[in-house]
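Cross-posting from the modeling subforum.

Setting up a comparison between two proteins and wanted a second pair of eyes on the formatting. Protein 1 (sequence, then structure tokens):
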Amino acid sequence: MPRQIKSKERVAEHGEVFTNEREVNAMLDLVKSETDRIESRFLEPACGDGNFLAEILRRKLARVKRQYKRNNSEYTKNAFLALTSIYGIDIQEDNVKECRERLFRIWDEAYTKQCKKESSDEIRSAAKYILQKNVLCGDALTLMKNDGTPIIFSQWDFTVGYRMRRRDFTLDALMRDEEPEKVEDDGQMSFMDVLAEKKKQGWDYDAETHGWTPAPIREFPSVDYWEVQYATES
């Protein structure tokens, strides 16, 4: 059975107590429809060594297996998508390292078991890169990394076929709950003018939801998903 504490000192200093497997599953069962959705994104703001994230990943990979077990290319693509949807923050560096390693082991075991000789070290390298970007050492209360810089997460989206696009957002922007400021329209502004003005305020228009979302601080051109670590800022 996984241990709930690493030391009494860490409990006293940081309130660090890991959640039992039984409680983890009971809580995730409350949002089962989301854990069963491959692309549904999860952020654990005090992830420890990954008790919640590990189980979320297992559930997502089980869904990928059920849906794509007869097609290794689609299995790998969607297993990769499942990995990109999982995010974590922890204030302890050793927890972050252990969480990344734990999630990779779960993912790689499922991937290798499915694809066998077709499995690729290049895809494994890309998976490790995703975890470096998605599981970070910092404080979810201050929204800052341990090095004093803002927490920045990458959003990974498939565009066409096997191409993936990366966009970076500050956690502060993702958590904002205010509405964008209204743009004064004198009757001469086009929709593109409104978009440009909102962009200055840090907002983008989402055509699917017909609403405003935080604008990314960086955008990268789409590349084959196994090459995401090589994409350069556009």
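Protein 2 (same layout):
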Amino acid sequence: MKFLVTGGAGFVGRHLVESLLNRGQAVRTLDRATSELVELKGRPGLEIVSGDVQDREIVNAALENVDAVYHSAWSFSPAPADAFKIDVGGYINLLDASVANRIRHFIFLSSSVVYGEPAYRPLDELHPHRPEKSRDPLHALTKSTVHKLTSLYYARHGLPSTVFIFWWGYGDRRIPGKTLRDLIDSALKGETIKAPERAGGSVAYLVDIAAAVEAATLNEKAYGQEFNLASFYIRWRDLIELIVRLADSPSRIEIVPDERWDGPGFLTGIWDISAKKAEELLGCRPDPEKSRQAFERTLGLAVEARRNR
């Protein structure tokens, strides 16, 4: 088989590319930041295309002789006109080209930001999309829009498609996010760190994400479906305690009741995500203990990187 991974130089896309190559698959990537893929150049089966999903000609060419598309490219533009032009417009280009090229499976890597503020817990795939209540309303609105477009193309054109949703991903080399970097820096300085009392979320290990995507690919049970993904749940106060321990820091942790929390918005809410549907339909059963161990290893690397910068 041959795969197209958009955003192949990004955090999730890069892992999907490596996972496919390690399984002996042929992979074409489409990304503007091809310099981020320099370490992978020369790998057998890898073709790197520099381009943008806004360009219809490039998208059509990128989908030639491809069996499946893994779409993970996203601009995160703060300007509404640009966000819809780049992300929604580019998504439509990919959907149209997928129909024209008779792509056998279109898979989109999305975010739980589409749910907005949780109305109930745990969050399952039936939870309404409430972008106006999201910590990032524009991002949530564009993601929610392309969810609907994916369903439309599946119903109208019969394009086999699947959407995966997760809250906060991490890999063996990196846990992304400015909030995390700021927490680590505070611990390294020995500063008092505030933590919400109950807030936290279900994190997703990239190894588990790749395994779920692999299990779904060309699996008829996944067509027309959306799946939440999660590896294990962690409270922010526990994560901060772990950072302080790994940094060997004298920082004091001040616990703040959730209703009085005035810190970073990302640390707000209880994002308990149900991945039961993926387990039942796709057989995806992450090992929480292995995922936790990987999380702690990667967090340790992040602490040392911030210490030595």
